[in-house]
# Entry
Amino acid sequence: MSANSAPTSASKPIRPNLFVAAAADGKPRLLGSRCRETGKIYFPSEAMNPDTHKTGTMEPVEIPGRGSIVSYTRVTRGLPGFSSPYTLAVVELDAGPSLVAQIEGAGETELAVGTPVELVIGTIKTEKDGTAIIGPKFRPRRPEGP
Amino acid sequence: MSKAYVIGAGMTEFGPQPETEVHELARRAAWDAINSAGVDPDAIEICFAGHAYQGPCFGQKALMRIGITGMPIINVENACASGASAVLGVLQAIRASEAEIGIAVGAEKLTTPGGGFLPIVADDLDSNMGRVMPAAFAMIARRHMHRFGTTAEQMAKVAVKNRRNAVRNPRCHLKKEVSVAEVLQSPMIADPLTRLSCCPNSDGAAAVVIASENVARRYTAKPIEIAASVLVSGLRTPYGIVDDHSEMSIRAARMAYARAGVEPADVDVCEMHDPFTIAELVHYEDLGFCAPGEAGRFIDEGRSEIGGDVAVSPSGGLLAKGHPLGATGVAQIAELFWQLRGESGDYQVPGARIGLAHTVGGGVTKLEAGACAVHILKA
# Structure
């Protein structure tokens, strides 16, 4: 986790039950669900399986934060509370699901479609009272990285 | 099942109208449509009213100013496709013989002080993560560039074309021509999309009066048939809206072509969902005007100009005419009504016989988008 985006005491998660900042091995994980029948993993978690339309087959799962960039952009003008400019990407996790998230610690030229990234938990935006809204972000990793 | 015909259309100017309430904008458009159709206001049996952010009972608040309430008024929210969904609602009522004459109204006011982006959708995860709409389309652009080699210059040419068309449309929000260099050098919003690659936030309203086969010719010698009206919702897709094609546009267009009995090559004029330059290129391919990967060449060769294979957004489109969300889909039908009757003045597509309107609406995390509408009209 980079120092400049570490959660402070005046912080709250962007959404409950979306991530854990440190799992048993100290690394962050995304919280999703997995279907016991199909094995498919969903993020964010689903109450029922939207592919099979079945209930009672989903179980909670901690999703490792390794993935790669599907597409990305440098947002020059963001909404209030976002620290612009910032880099935004669609990240496809190695475990299956994709999500939209900010990329930190990357110059624009370092990124490409396919760049490997890893999950960090950091500040997504700051509310007017100074509260940091924290959640999943990614940073580039070496393909053979940790 | 009755056929349905557009028999009248009305539209306000698009652009900032800070002094005028949204219901008054909608009243003006509805009144113009009713007058152009020549129908008795009391003969209107149903109204569908499209808007995204204008609050409860929007349609009632507009039509009460004309004095036509009492019949069913159904308010429709489908983000940018709200207006197109309202048109579909009226059409279905007429096809089902629930009504002989109905009106679709759409309006929006978006030019609030300090405004730039659409309001964040509080319950949408992608929005909260920082995915403003220009960023979504920038990532679509990156996918299309990556797969097909589409260039920033080719995207910029869409803005150049639609701005040039807009200069001839008196209702347009942005009335100044721009060059490729100006588009590329305007301030970056979300790389590779610059400010001139994005549609403006506009105020405006539009309305169309739709009638059954039984009564349409009582009012006009030139009713315009709505030969296909298709509305689909988006599927759960791996990357959401960020892809090098729009599955829901392809699906809706195929259904519409089949129902109308026409081919993409038959379309003379298209009012297309072009909120950002890249969208128009992607949708040339989705709607079958060219093959996947050919959109860059299609714009390079001028084939979407007035006088080309298919005139795309001769009105100026969302990029230049403006994009008051609820009004947009209704305005597209109004534009096609005028085009197919030869009443579009300086931006008339010569000899236009078949028109297609295409709208996509709504950023929804995990879905490609909320709604996509394709209408095909025949002279």
Remarks:
- Residues 22-37 of chain B form the longest helix (16 residues).
- Chain B has two domains: 4-112+203-225, 125-199+228-378.
- The CA atoms of residues 234 and 248 of chain B lie 6 Å apart.
- The mean pLDDT of chain B is 95.
